[in-house]
Amino acid sequence: MPRRMGRPGLMGTMARTAVIAGTATAVSGAVKKKGAQSAAQQQQAAAAQQQAVAAQQQELADRAAAKAVADVQAQQAAAAATAPPASEDRMAKIKELGEMKTQGLLTDEEFAAEKARILAG
Questions:
Q1: pTM
Q2: Which residues contact 9 (CB under 8 A, 6 or more apart)?
Q3: Helix axes 108-120, 86-102, angle to 10 degrees
Q4: Longest dimension (CA), the chain
Q5: What is the pLDDT of residue 5?
Q6: Cβ neighbours of 118 (radius 10 Å)
Q7: Residue 97: exposed, middle, or buried by beta-carbon count in 10 A (0-12, 13-18, 19+)?
Q8: Model confidence over 86-104: pLDDT tens digits?
Q9: Which pLDDT band, with edges at 50, 70 and 90, does 57 fall under?
Q10: CA 110, 114, 119, 120 torsion-angle sign
């Protein structure tokens, strides 16, 4: 058969179309793959940043809680240092009751009842 010059025949056109379609598919797949990898990297970076922020917030909360506990302990220590001992306070009340009994303001029964209440309390 004589060879034709000029434009390709049906088989040549089909072959060229198949090559172009295959190339386009390969390029498209590579672009999609690269885009998916980029999106995954961005998600990982965002997750890492969120974890870092959460860790900072937790650290700040822990510090604030520790400071609050230390403040409360300091206040309790200061209050304990300035408060008179309970035994001295009881003795003063009993002495006052004794003076009231001596002055005749309390009976023996009232004195005994108040003394027992002070010592129990």
A1: 0.41
A2: none
A3: 180
A4: 150
A5: 66
A6: 16
A7: buried
A8: 678 888 888 998 999 899 8
A9: very high
A10: positive
- The residues near 115 (Cβ < 8 Å, ≥ 6 apart) are 94, 97
Of residues 86, 96, 84, the one with CA closest to residue 119? 86
Residue 77 is predicted with a pLDDT of 85
| pLDDT tens digits for range 14-29 | 888 888 888 888 888 8
Q: Which residues of 57-82 are buried (b: 16+ CB within 10 A; e: fewer)?
A: eeeeeeeeeeeeeeeeeeeeeeeeee
Q: Are 64 and 82 in contact (CB under 8 A)?
A: no
Residue 45, helix vs strand vs coil: helix
More confident residue, 18 or 8: 18
Q: How many degrees, rounded to 5, is the angle at CA 93 between CA 92 and CA 97?
A: 120
Structure tokens at 26: 């390969």
